[in-house]
Amino acid sequence: MIRVALDLLGGDAAPEAVLEAAAAALEAWPNDLSLLLVGPGDLLREARTRFPPNQVGWLGAEEFIGPMEPPALAVRRKADSTVVRGLEAVRDGRADGFVSAGPTGATVVASVLTLGLLPGVDRPPVGALFPTATGRVLVMDVGANVDVRPRQLHQFARLGSTYLRRTLSIGRPRVGLLNIGVEGEKGGGAIAAAHGLLSADPELHFVGNVEGHQIVTGACDVLVCGGFVGNVLLKFYESIAEFVLGIFRNAGVGEGGKLGEALRVLDYTEYGGAPLFGVDGVAVICHGTSPARAIMNGIRTAADCAASGFTSVTRTSLARMQESGA
Fold this sequence. Notes:
The protein is α/β, with parallel strands linked by helices and 326 residues long. It has helices at 16-28, 41-47, 71-77, 82-91, 104-115, 150-166, 189-200, 227-250, 258-262, 292-308, 310-323, and strands at residues 2-7, 33-39, 56-60, 97-100, 127-132, 135-140, 174-178, 205-210, 222-224, 274-275, 283-285.
């Protein structure tokens, strides 16, 4: 049984949305999942009455890191925060993964300091699944690294490709590099250099540059980009479903909920949290505005990563990358 540590204070709707997510996850996967709820003592005492003791454990953490706090400073000063304590549980083997809807920066910093980076990783990217006409695409990175080098974009491609093979059972993921044109020299600088690295890697199924309009058509399975562009793309995607629904509602189209059901594929809550790649353990980051459904699916993502042995497989892939001199 997989045990996932869950940050009770993470997110705008915490703790109630997190507790609802915990209850829904345990109901959905009662035989495969247990939870370690991380939060202050008074909240844990209140929550004990809502869960069966054989499915839930409790871990006290009296401090919370807010969205406006400098991540590195806050993580070092608040050793008893829910983020730090939850990740320590993963490091110490008390949990197989950690999920938080708290500030992304704090979770990234705490993961690096507590779990450590896997050998061969310069910076850990956050990967998010986006819907396409043919399925889904994993975008790497969606916000953890604003300025990136060619070597790091190459690492993102390896990490994403390994994840899709191991966790989502995609045999040979197609890797694309987000660019403004299909020619190899487009984009200049780091992007053009990254194109060369990706093209030369025999372990990657690199399909070349992918332009913005090709993303939704399913041109690739892993889309590699810097965190600045990836975060803009992520937030644009998240806004599309409600925007399209609003247009049709204003026109009097789609009454009865059929349109909403059809557009459910665009709802980010269906995909839950985004894994933090390249750290020595499973950490999943949910959007700060996540409702209970999104956090529940983030728990599922963490459990899937842990059950698949993704971290150990990634370590092997990165070792081969270093041996080849890439």
